[in-house]
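Appendix B. Chain record.
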Amino acid sequence: MLNSKKIGAYISEQRKNKNLTQAELAEKLNITHQAISKWEKGSSLPDIAILVELAEIFEVTVDEILKGESNQVIQKENKKDITETTDMINNSIKEVNEKNGVDEIIESVKKMEKNFGEGLGEGFAVGFGDEIMKSAKDIKKSFEGIDSRRTVIQSRFKEEKSKFKEEKSKFKEEKSKFKEEKARFKEQKEMMKKNIKEKFNKINSINSDQLVTIAPYLDRESTEKGIDIVTDGMDIKNIISLAPFLGKDKIDSMVDNAMNKEELDLDILMGLCPFISRDKIDELVDIALENEVNIEMISGIAPFVSREKMGYIVDKAMESDKIDFELLASIAPFIKRAKMDEIINKMMENEIDIEVLSTLAPFIKRKTLDNIIDKCINKEEMDVELLTMLCPFISKEKVDELVDNILDHESIEEILSGLAPFISADKCEEIFYELLDEEDRNYEVISTLAPFLRKEVIIEAINIELKSGKNDGELLAILGPFIG
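Structure tokens predicted for this chain:
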């Protein structure tokens, strides 16, 4: 088996004998100096192709590199065996010289070859060294072919890199041209807006459709002035089209005038909401609610109406049984928490969708959420994932109660890692002491609870452990960092 540390030390020694730095050796081998460093540290070994080049540079054999020592050392260790082998070979040659018959000579030669092989050991029979050198040369030749292909690949890479640079340069030029065109377009647009404004300020009348067409090129002051010279009046459709270019006060007054002429519907209300004042929205909502409550209207206008008005809308919807938990979840951020609790308490008479409840949780008071869990959730079949989602919003007392039902869960270690920050200190200590009393301690759970235990509890547990003579090393290793 190869000893990478020994090989690394040998490579380092031979490199220094040749007065080469790691960088210089790396350049000769066409590799990085980090690779040389890894060899010499023993963390990796050279590829077989590099071994041949390395041997030539160091003027040693590949065998010497792989053994991590020079053959001179090996020869000293085997000097006695070689001497004995030499004597055996000489005796065999002498025996051959004394034979006259061909068969006798051949037999003696075979005996000599056998003695030679046995004397040098397996793997060193006649001609073996030559075969190694031949194989090494063949390997070197094959890797010369690889070097040639690598040169071709490098050349192609350089070509592609050069093409990429050209394309990048072209892109920069196009980008620069685009910026220039954009600047010219902006300048022309400003000039056109200026010309339109100048011409517009000279006119005395305009119809509503014409004003809608040129409004994007006018400032707010000019657009509002245009409203005053419209000859055919403004309907809601045109008001909505002009709304992005007018102030809220102007739109509010225009809506007041127009609403006397047209009936308010959902599309009109949704179109106006982003542009009119909240007071005006609330006023229009009252008009809309005189008709049947529309569920689409509730979720669509929620971000724009006041929280008080939103509560009123929800009450109206509940009167006609047109609200469910899914809709409530979509509008919850826009309802007062007190109103939310009131709505939830009314809806608890029906079955509650637990997944939707986790969405509503951030908008419900802790006490209300605790009551929902008591009335609507089977604690024996409590879904662990749901519990994890609800924990940040329910009281610690309720978390403790729910945790008691999952202590025997097969994935308790993973579960507690998410729940531990929300469990009360007393419950953490209770679970901790129960675990200490168990013969087969669950160290993963203990490790999870440890950061949330009081310092005095940890010290007491360690003292009890030491006095009992158990000296549980794993337990002490877990608790030790928390007593400093």
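Further analysis of this model is presented in Appendix C.
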